[in-house]
Amino acid sequence: MTADPGRTAVGLRVLAEARWPQEGDGVPPGVPGFVHSAFAPLVVAVADRCLGQRHGEPARTAVVLVSAGGDRVSAAHVRSTVAAGGRVGPLFFFQSVPNSVAGHVAARWGLDGPVVCLSPTGDPWADGVAEAELLRYDGDADEVLLVHVEEAPDGTPTGAVAVLLGGGTRQ
């Protein structure tokens, strides 16, 4: 996903942007309460990087997490554990819902807007921006942290982008 301010039709603009990985990045640091997979740590790392650039002014900020595949590693682990007749650890029930890591980011940063997760079938950027525009248009948020993260079919993180969208005027 590439942040493209020209594609924000309702006047939203990119206030901050971050990517993972950047040169020198290794594996994102672990996140308490999330195990076995790099999905949640990747979301948290890129969100922290983005929000750290600008956040601090009072604003109702929503979180929109966009991922076509979600946390493939955790899903595969649960599938294989169940198929083998094993017991699935309780943390997997918590982290199997992408809203849990989006909510973690919101709580960590004191964001008080809605938390939304999307699984796009088309252009992830267009779907995410459309949701951000809707949240602003409806008056649910002043700013939107839009995070796009994907994993390869084998569960290897391919990277993440986070943008803080805001500004402009509501219609």
UniProtKB/TrEMBL annotation:
It comes from the Bacteria. InterPro entries: Ketoacyl_synth_N (IPR014030), Thiolase-like (IPR016039). Gene3D superfamilies: 3.40.47.10. Residues 37-153 form the Beta-ketoacyl synthase-like N-terminal domain. Pfam families: Ketoacyl-synt_2. This is Beta-ketoacyl synthase chain length factor. It comes from Micromonospora mangrovi.
